[in-house]
Specification:
The structure holds two protein chains of two kinds.
Chain A: H1 2-10, H2 12-33, H3 45-59, H4 63-86, E1 93-103, E2 112-114, E3 127-129, E4 134-141, E5 146-150, E6 158-162, E7 168-172, E8 180-184, E9 197-200, E10 212-220, E11 229-234, E12 243-249, H5 252-262
Chain B: H1 3-19, H2 36-40, H3 48-66, H4 71-90, H5 103-131, H6 137-162
Helix pairs in contact in B: 3-4, 4-5, 5-6
The chains are: A alpha+beta, B mainly alpha.
Chain lengths: 263, 164
Amino acid sequence: MQTLLKILVRYSNFLVFIALEVAAFMLLSWNNVYPRSSIMSTANDAIAWQHEQISEIKSYFSLRRQNEQLAAENAALRNQICSMDSAKTGDTFHYVPAKVVQMTTDRLHNYLTINRGSKDGIYRGQGIRNEDGAVGIVRTVGRNYSVVLPIINTHTNLSCRFAKNDYIGTLQWDGKDSRFALLADVAAHMVVNPGDTIITSGLSPVFPEGIPVGIVENSVLKEGDSYYTIRVRLNTNFKRLKYVEVVQNSAQNELEELEHGLD
Amino acid sequence: MDWTKQIGRYILVMALQVLLFDQLQLLGACHPYIYVLCLLMMPITLPHSIDMILGAIAGIIMDIFCNSLGVHTAACILVMFIRPYLIGAIVSDKDRLNEQINLHTIGMEALVKYVVIMVLIHHLTIFLLAAWSWHHIGFVALETIVSSTVTILIIIGYNALKYR
């Protein structure tokens, strides 16, 4: 007993070190698997508020470009209203405008924070788009702010298809350039041409079908491979991202319940 | 230097970290974590285990700002664990130390050794844990070299200005 105590005292610092590191790694894996703690992320009100102030200051330097973008977006929206009035389909999607408060684009795991949270009806798993195309998926929701996993995060998988022939693939990011992503799972028998348009597949309730994602930059089929390596130029300019829309699907809960019912 | 000064410096350095260095978008791989300055230059008066707990707290605070819960925490605990052993190995004249770690007390050569080793360990741990795979090892290496260089220059520059 006494020797055990002596050993414990002698190595107490090392034991504290091990205990702390184990706790840190538990936090790390818990955050990777189950990232719902809004207090411990930039969805935290105080942290997001501070990021919002910085982004306010930075936004003064890009006012002219912002104005041009907004004007263009207004025009596009007006056009959409016209076409929507004529075709009232059973669409269950609607959009909530949001502002990007904080964003990184040059890391492997980029995140962006938006100024909408649970009080605006935001849920984990909802899609984010802007006028150019798909942006990402909501990851952590706080009361007033949410953290979004953008396409340019190596954790993100987005189901996409070719506009020309409905062929499905998975969009992933390789961590290198925020302008490009890779489309996986496209079989070798497909004919892929540079310039082909990639859109969301509508297979998940996250995005409606047909939101533009990007265009094929180039495709490589290595000798003996049965799948293409396709580089897609993304429509969304993440470096200049400022205003986005949260895609809300009023049928999402129903769809998820149905899916869980099947398990 | 008493503890109010330490905390004051920590708040200032964190403000610089979040307001300036986290906003940098140079070269795509430059993410210096200068807040480690406060951990490296903390006086060596406290028990080793308390040092490691303070490191963990600084790490968690940084993690909240980076959406990377656990990454900075693990790196800071590691740095604070190594710290007394490294100081013991590098500093020969312990009497001059007077419990302070800076240019004035340990001299330029020891300071450079100390800062380079610690910052490299700290940044490499962070970028490896954040990548969480060997796929991006090239990018992690580049990120570590570029970011560590900036952090090292800033910490040594701070010492050169303040403790001439």
